[in-house]
Amino acid sequence: MPPPRWSTPEQLQWLQSEIPAYKKAQEDNTVNKFWEVMTHAWYQEFSERKLLWPPEGIPPGMSKEMADADLPAEFAEILGSALSERNEKLKNWYRNNSRVKVTSGSNKTSKLLNKLLGQRAQGVRDLNQIEVYSKLHYEEKVKPMVENEISEKGLVDVGERLRCIKTLTAEMYKQEGEDVKASVKAEMIRRNEERKRPLDTANTPESRSR
Prior knowledge:
The protein is an all-alpha fold.
């Protein structure tokens, strides 16, 4: 007995419409490129955030402005897990359904896929040094202080927790030595360059919070 279908009728139609692009990627040995571009296009159509936090994709207790910035660690972890699970479902779907016969490539999604393959990322905001420092050292250096501060002050509101995280991260980075700051700056440059490469060489997470 086949497993229950996880996709909606609209999502199923979307998936089926891209089977020709998947088959072409197999022939050209560019399946990794297909995964990157396909998932980018998928999340433009079907936001994982909106599935997690309907209807607008905004976690509880947060404003739109907060949600558009880097998510607090607790919500980023939830979103990251959901994206990983969704990506695996998408890959498995194509691996299991590539023999389905469909008409190729005149729909808008196929055109988007073809366009994105050679397109430079547009409107990608550069990460700053404190954001990169947080991604590299939050768990080890900042998180214990954040947890202590939240416990001592009894911070419950998500907005207050977010401000606490940002404040303590900035303070910790300010206290770091020049060697750490130099490595963070180098990593910041590398990540920002990577985020602006064509989508065939850059990851495209929906959260924009690599």
